[in-house]
# Entry
Amino acid sequence: MKLIETAIADLLIIEPRVFGDDRGFFLESWNAATFREAGLDLSFVQDNHSRSAKGVLRGLHFQNPNPQGKLVRVTAGRAWDVAVDLRRGSPTCGRWQGVELSAANKRMFWVPPGFAHGFVALEDGTDFLYKCTAAYEPANERSLAWDDPTVAIEWPLEGIEPQLSGKDKLGLPFADVELFA
# Structure
C-alpha cells in the first residue's frame, strides 16, 4: 500500500495495492501486520456502514472524551471526505483536509483521534465504510458545524443544498468546540 501524507500531521490518504483483470479486482483493505509495518499500529473495535443519496452531508462528528480514530473508504459511489484538526496545541488546529473517496479510486483515509470528521455524498447510492478505534458513545458525541466560517471547508456542493440530519443542523461553531488535549 502507498501512504500519502497530507498538510496535516498524522492524517493520511492510503492507496491499497489493487490486483485486477477482466474478471474484476482484489484488494486488501485491512491487514494489521501490513499497517503496523507502515507505522500504523491500530486496533479497531467497531465497523460501520452508511448509504447516502447525493447531497447527504454527514458530520462533522467527533467524540470527546474517548475519541475515535477512523479508517474510512467508499465501496459504491463517491464522497468528499473531510477531517478537521481539533488537537489543542497542534500547528494545524482548526485546519481541514479533504479527499475524494470513491469506488473507482479505492482510496482510504486515516482520520486519527482528535479530529472532527464528515463527508458529503457526490452520487446516489454512496456506500461509506469505516473502522473505528473506539466504540460509539452517544453521550460523548459532538458535532462541529459543517459550514463554520472559521474553518471554511470548501464543500463541492455546486449549488446543491446539503441534506442534514437534525443533529447535524445543530453543530457547534469552532469557537465553542472543546478541543482535545
Notes: The mean pLDDT is 96. Residues 2-176 form a domain with the Jelly Rolls fold (CATH 2.60.120.10).
